[in-house]
Amino acid sequence: MSVQLPPPTNRKRALPQGELEASSTLKLGADQNTHTLSLSEARLVIHKVLENKRRGGNKYEEPENLTKTLDYLDVFARFKDEENIKAVERLLNSHTELEMFERSQLGSLCCDNAEEAKSLIPSLQNKISDGDLQELLDELTKLRNFTE
What we know:
- The chain is mainly alpha-helical.
- The protein has helices at 39-55, 64-76, 82-93, 100-109, 114-120, 130-145; strands at residues 21-22, 26-27.
- The protein has a domain at 37-53 and 62-146: Growth Hormone, Chain: A (Up-down Bundle), CATH 1.20.1250.
- The protein contains six helices and two strands, in the order ββαααααα.
């Protein structure tokens, strides 16, 4: 006796154009030059938007997935103070040899040393020397210490 299954109810997912990969070579397709945010920047943006919605006078109830996203960002965002977040963004943006994706990853991961950073973000391998990367990471650490 065989059981007949109903047809699937999900939509077919569009296949990505080309190969997407964030390894030793960044291949991000259409998103290659898209501005990306660190977790700290995303946290700041969402809090500002919600603050404006609440100030608008209309009753606004946050969807559950937004509340969960904010909870996640509150835990994992490395920088909490707006001034430090802006300083981190300026510091990372001064490294124009790095892709936007790599900068946001550095701002989110806050690696201790160049070896760890290059291990977690392999595309940094031939873009920045270990010494320059370590100097950048040390500057990020200084900014982070003021926020925790």
